[in-house]
Amino acid sequence: MPSSALTKTFSDPIQLIYAGGTFGSYGRPLAPLSAEVFLPTLKELLIAQDTAATLPKISWLENTLIKDSSQLTPHDFVHFYQLLLNAYSQGDRRFLLITGTDTLSYLGAFLAEAFAGSDICVVLTASMRPLLDSDMLHSYNIDAHSDAWSNLSDSLKLAAAGESGVKISFGGESWPAQTVQKIHSHDLMAFTGHSRAAYPANSYIKHLPDTRRQHWLDDQQETLATVKMRAEHASIHALYCLPNDVSVINNQLLALLLEPPCGIILLGFGAGNVPYSEALAETLELIHKKGHIVICASQCPFGGVSDSYAAGSWQYDHHVIAGGRLTISAIYARLLWLLLRYDSPARRKQRWINTVSKTGTTIKKR
């Protein structure tokens, strides 16, 4: 592996990755254009639009995985992790990834977890409307009503600044990736987030010494094959509490006892309230013994969970871990990374607790 002393400077191009999504869709019905068609078109449009030379220089990182983001799987997430990791090991440090909006927050949060402790700069963006105007089917022109061009321009400028970390840029704003969630299905202001992020955002190093960067890279490369193998079978389940008899959620959990150790997101009411029964408490004990990790999240988009109400606090006595203020996307991403990166249920749970407790969001077992 090349020495990390070869890290490139800010005069070097930003590495742009095109991964499909609405941004590069075209025609009737809309479908993502192949990289062979879209990238040359985008290059020409960048030259034509950037007459004042205000945008940074770009290089194109070859990517073979182009699909609608709703089709992405853990294996695909690892593909982008490896793609970025390989380029980072060659000295590149600034990246822009264009993907789709459906799993934008999930992929961004996963990459934030995976690259924690490094000084990489990754910006993800997407669009609610295609860059190209499908009313003009015989020539490629920018759709004046699309948000794609402005999202691209903003993201390139953010990547050019080179601040360490993984961010999502959308609708004129940007946020640490693990704080972002989609809040509207078709409005151009479809995402929100916040800047008060703790781990993994606060784990990024502004100026990482060459020796430490090389140690970080060696550690990631050493476990890469295992991460890829585990991604083939990793699964995260989400169980949504509804005003049903408690036996419904209990039976859903019991069905997961047959699964290999996995991640489970328990979506409670309000601040994490979950209907109680002795049977459900016993099932949670069995789930723990099986090696599953259960995280309680709120169905509310904001506020997270707490142990203020007896209706929710009981579960934390049965090995459920509070998701704090983390979004569902961030909880999914952290669970997935723990499943891929660590070799035992005990280590995964210990890593979650040690990491989250530093942010002040852990609810202690009483």
Summarize the SSE layout with pairings.
Layout: E1 14-18, E2 25-26, E3 31-32, H1 35-49, E4 58-60, H2 74-89, E5 94-98, H3 104-114, E6 121-125, H4 148-161, E7 165-170, E8 173-176, E9 181-182, E10 191-192, H5 210-231, E11 236-240, H6 246-255, E12 263-268, H7 278-290, E13 293-298, H8 310-313, E14 321-322, H9 328-341, H10 345-357
Helix pairs in contact: 2-5, 3-9, 6-7, 9-10
Descriptive account of the structure:
- By secondary structure, the chain is α/β, with parallel strands linked by helices.
- It folds into 2 domains: 4-228, Rossmann fold (3-Layer(aba) Sandwich); 235-357, 3-Layer(aba) Sandwich (Rossmann fold).
- Helices cover 36% and strands 15% of the residues.
- It contains 10 helices and 14 strands.
- A 6-stranded mixed β-sheet has the order 4-1-5-6-7-8, with helices on both faces. A 4-stranded parallel β-sheet has the order 11-12-13-14, with helices on both faces.
- The longest helix is centred in the middle third of the chain and has 22 residues, at 210-231.
- The chain is globular, with a radius of gyration of 21 Å.
- Mean pLDDT is 91; it is low at 1-5 and 358-366.
* End-to-end distance: 48 Å
- What's the overall geometry? globular
Helix content bin: 25-40%
CATH superfamily name of the largest domain? Answer: L-asparaginase, N-terminal domain
Mean pLDDT: 91
Largest sheet geometry: 6 strands, mixed
- Class computed from helices, strands and strand pairing: alpha/beta
CATH C-level name of the largest domain: Alpha Beta
Task: Describe the structure concisely for a colleague.
This protein is α/β, with parallel strands linked by helices and 366 residues long.
